[in-house]
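Figure 3 (text version): structure tokens given as input.
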């Protein structure tokens, strides 16, 4: 994402109390209001916001998805000042690195070992195939290279989280981020509803469908919803496989950062110490602390709460707020002229991923 991982710049600060400051707070306030409304819609007790299953209620449409849609509506309906849009952009840039770090508190690195070698092999192959297929398809369809990389990351790993983590490594601009996030979120919702029906038609066993859903659907809530819609055993395995994909985000970032740096500079010019932004190390540190059980359980008057859960919830809140801010940047007229190729690329890449994953499952499981 443009400006998320770069050298500090000296900027001229406006005088306190001027119109810039007023419009800046207007952008912040709009982002907060949109995020709050997104959470209200997220918890609505009706489909598709809430889906009931044998294991209880699920909320597959994340607040972050609703927030970015809400931000887009506000941006294109209300006549917002340019400075308000810029301040919202600055808010997103500040929150996203913190969100990525906090998300590490919800990961257990040992899950990679518990998922099973066959499922892990299928997951790794699917990550490589989906990334490679997306890059090739983006070139074939004439999509911007960086947008293709982000769609590939979202398809291969974990949707929006992977996109916002990869964006600074490939020097993506804001329009790349908007197109890729919109494409991936739409396709993730489609797969969430389509895959259980397709699995039934194909008479897939629970373990086969669990691996299929876990290796192909983009976001964790969508995987959980699709898996448990199929069966409880399929839901448990799908969730585990998906969490392994999320855990692989860290090595994936290292590989993407290294390859992008090699392609856009000579070997001698690569600064390996700065190849990956600092928030990746924070992400790994919290994941390691959680894996080792070093994050304590906090005691409050109303009860106890694990620090890992608190940090993870804070990360989700920041993601929703940053998505609302990013939605306020989106110009629908611009996307209408450029979004078709992104969606087509994402659809084709998702189809390739689903087919390859299913073939591997048929052969190996």
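Below: residues designed for each position.
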């Amino acid at each position: 994402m443009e400006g998320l991982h770069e050298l500090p710049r000296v900027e001229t600060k406006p005088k306190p109390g001027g119109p810039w400051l007023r419009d800046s707070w207007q952008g912040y306030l709009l982002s907060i209001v949109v995020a709050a409304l997104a959470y209200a819609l997220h918890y609505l007790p009706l489909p598709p916001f809430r889906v009931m299953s044998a294991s209880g209620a699920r909320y597959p449409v994340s607040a972050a998805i609703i927030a970015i849609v809400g931000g887009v509506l506000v941006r294109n309906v209300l006549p917002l000042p340019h400075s308000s849009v810029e301040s919202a952009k600055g808010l997103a840039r500040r929150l996203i690195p913190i969100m990525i770090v906090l998300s590490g508190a919800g990961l257990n690195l040992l899950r990679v070992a518990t998922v099973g070698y066959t499922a892990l092999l299928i997951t790794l192959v699917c990550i490589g195939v989906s990334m490679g297929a997306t890059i090739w398809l983006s070139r074939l369809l004439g999509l911007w290279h960086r947008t293709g990389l982000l769609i590939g990351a979202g398809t291969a790993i974990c949707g929006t989280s992977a996109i916002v983590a990869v964006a600074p490594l490939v020097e993506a601009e804001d329009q790349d981020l908007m197109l890729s996030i919109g494409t991936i979120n739409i396709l993730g919702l489609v797969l969430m509803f389509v895959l259980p029906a397709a699995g039934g038609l194909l008479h897939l066993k629970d373990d086969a469908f669990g691996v299929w859903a876990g290796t192909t659907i983009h976001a964790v809530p969508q995987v959980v919803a699709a898996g448990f819609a199929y069966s409880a055993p399929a839901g448990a395995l799908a969730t585990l496989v998906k969490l392994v994909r999320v855990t692989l985000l860290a090595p994936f970032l290292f590989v993407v950062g290294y390859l992008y740096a090699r392609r856009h500079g000579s070997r001698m010019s690569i600064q390996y110490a700065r190849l990956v932004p600092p928030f990746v190390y924070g992400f790994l540190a919290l994941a390691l602390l959680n894996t080792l059980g070093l994050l304590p359980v906090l005691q409050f008057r109303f009860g106890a709460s694990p620090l890992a859960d608190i940090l993870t919830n804070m990360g989700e809140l920041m993601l929703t707020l940053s998505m609302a801010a990013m939605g306020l940047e989106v110009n629908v007229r611009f996307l209408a002229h450029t979004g078709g190729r992104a969606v087509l690329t994402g659809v084709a890449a998702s189809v390739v991923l689903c087919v390859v994953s299913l073939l591997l499952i048929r052969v190996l499981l």
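Residues 1-21, 266-270 have pLDDT under 50 and may be disordered.
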